[in-house]
TrEMBL record:
InterPro entries: Homeodomain-like_sf, HTH-type_TetR-like_transc_reg, HTH_TetR. This is AcrR family transcriptional regulator. PROSITE patterns: HTH_TETR_2 (PS50977). Transmembrane segments: none annotated. Residues 29-48 bind DNA. It comes from Streptosporangium album. GO terms for molecular function: DNA-binding transcription factor activity; transcription cis-regulatory region binding. Residues 6-66 form the HTH tetR-type domain. Keywords: DNA-binding, Transcription, Transcription regulation. Pfam families: TetR_N.
């Protein structure tokens, strides 16, 4: 059995994540990652043919880790509860993963998406497609099929919780303990039938 690589991909991406969270995507260079990971530059180029490929791998790993739990909340339980759990997940995951959250507060364009390898761009397209499809399915389970109703569900489960997280992170404040309840209350109000809102 061969020995595991001394500088495996996750270790290198952990170093890249540390740099991106502390100083932004522009700080993630091959030389900087090599320094933080205590790895030779050649080891990095052996795994990532370019800086853009490394940035793509970092973004996609972060997104995949977030989406795994988010998708799980959408696919289980009664639809109303699934919507509330999805909104809560955005907050609770962000609190538990502050470094990764700082990465996601940027966007893929900040991680040089135009220059990503084709397979990385396709990976992102499919990942985002899975979330969009799951939210449309949840909307249908809620009996909401009109475009504005689906958009309201996106707002309730993604945009609003994400904005709550962003405000606290950008202020360097901890996410308060009541934030999950707050976003869940807002989600419940947004997905309620009009007659139930007032």
């Amino acid at each position: 059995m061969g020995r595991p690589a001394q500088h495996d991909i996750d270790r290198l991406l952990d170093a890249a994540a540390e740099l991106a969270a502390e100083s932004g995507p522009s700080a993630v260079t091959v030389a900087a990652v090599a320094r933080v990971a205590h790895a030779p530059s050649g080891s990095i180029y052996h795994r990532f043919p370019s800086r853009s490929a490394m940035l793509a791998a970092l973004w996609l790993r972060t997104v995949d880790r977030f989406q795994e739990g988010f998708l799980a909340t959408l696919e289980t339980g009664p639809p109303e509860q699934a919507a509330l759990d999805a909104a809560r997940h955005v907050v609770s995951w962000s609190r538990a993963h502050p470094r990764e959250t700082r990465i996601l507060l940027y966007g893929p364009a900040d991680f040089d998406r135009p220059n990503w390898p084709d397979e990385a761009r396709e990976h992102l397209r499919q990942s985002n497609g899975r979330v969009a499809s799951a939210l449309r399915d949840l909307a249908a389970r809620l009996g909401k099929r009109e475009p504005h109703e689906v958009e309201r569900l996106f707002l309730a489960t993604v945009d609003l919780p994400y904005a709550t997280v962003r405000r606290h992170h950008l202020s360097d404040e901890p996410i308060p303990a009541y934030a999950e309840d707050l976003v869940a209350d807002c989600t419940a109000a947004l997905i309620a039938e009009p007659s139930e809102r007032y």
